[in-house]
Design goal:
The protein is α/β, with parallel strands linked by helices. It has a single domain (4-216), classed as Rossmann fold, CATH 3.40.50.300. The protein has helices spanning 24-37, 52-62, 71-94, 106-116, 121-132, 147-157, 167-170, 174-190, 204-216; strands at 12-17, 42-46, 99-103, 139-144, 195-199. It has a five-stranded parallel sheet, sandwiched between helices. The longest helix is centred in the middle third of the chain and has 24 residues, at 71-94. The model is unreliable at 1-7 and 159-163 (pLDDT under 50).
Length: 223
């Protein structure tokens, strides 16, 4: 992915990534609430989704009933959702001051469809270049956890009524999730200046404390 600096955007773009059960969705809400409490202009969003059209695509992608979905079709659906997300939400909000917090972005496609599904990495990067047009996050926080532990945690939360899950991926094998995890770690090694790896098997409070320290390094905090 090309450098985000080419866009000369005023806002900061922060993404959280991780395998199922890493706790990223919980942590990004805690971070959003913290930044809002400081008076920082903020947009919290997610992928797939983030728009009315994207949310319809999300339902297809995460529905456990869609076992026949071809990996290439899956890849293109993520790209379509991301293109709409960028146009409607991410790019407009980055034009002004503040922060865009996103639960997953293009790295998730490389990790899941590239390393997990074993689709061609170069093909995915080419598609990403078309969709993102040079945009990449200022910082990406990778919540890292053992694949088996993460999946067990994710499957356990399915018993909680009303909690949205990512069932189609949670039903994948541990081997799949291990490939995804190793894919994320490979991406982090390739871009150490952008990625920050946070060990995610600790307490919610310890993880959030570390995330806030990371974010304070790139976000100007009000006096």
């Amino acid at each position: 992915m090309q450098s985000r600096s080419l866009n000369k955007m005023e806002g900061k773009f922060i993404t959280l990534e991780g395998i199922e059960g890493s706790g990223k969705s919980t942590q990004i809400v805690l971070l959003a609430n913290y930044l809002k409490s400081l008076g920082i202009r903020l947009v919290l969003t997610r992928e797939p989704g983030g728009t009315l059209i994207g949310d319809q695509v999300r339902k297809i992608l995460l529905d456990p009933a869609n076992t026949a979905l071809d990996p290439k079709a899956e890849l293109l659906l993520y790209a379509a959702s991301r293109a709409q997300h960028l146009k409607e939400v991410i790019l407009p909000h980055l034009e002004g001051p503040g922060v865009v917090l996103c639960d997953r972005f293009a790295d998730a496609t490389l990790a899941y469809q590239g390393y997990g599904r074993r689709l061609d990495i170069d093909l995915i990067r080419t598609l990403d270049g078309i969709v993102c047009a040079g945009l990449s996050p200022d910082i990406t926080i990778l919540l890292d956890i053992d694949a088996a532990a993460g999946v067990a945690r994710a499957r356990g939360r399915n018993n909680i009524r009303g909690l949205e899950t990512e069932g189609r991926f949670e039903n994948e094998s541990i081997a799949f999730h291990e490939r995804v995890r190793q894919g994320y770690l490979a991406l982090a090694r390739q871009e150490p200046e952008r990625f920050r790896i946070v060990e995610a098997s600790r307490s919610r409070e310890d993880i959030q404390t570390e995330i806030r320290k990371i974010v304070s390094g790139i976000v100007v905090m009000p006096n």
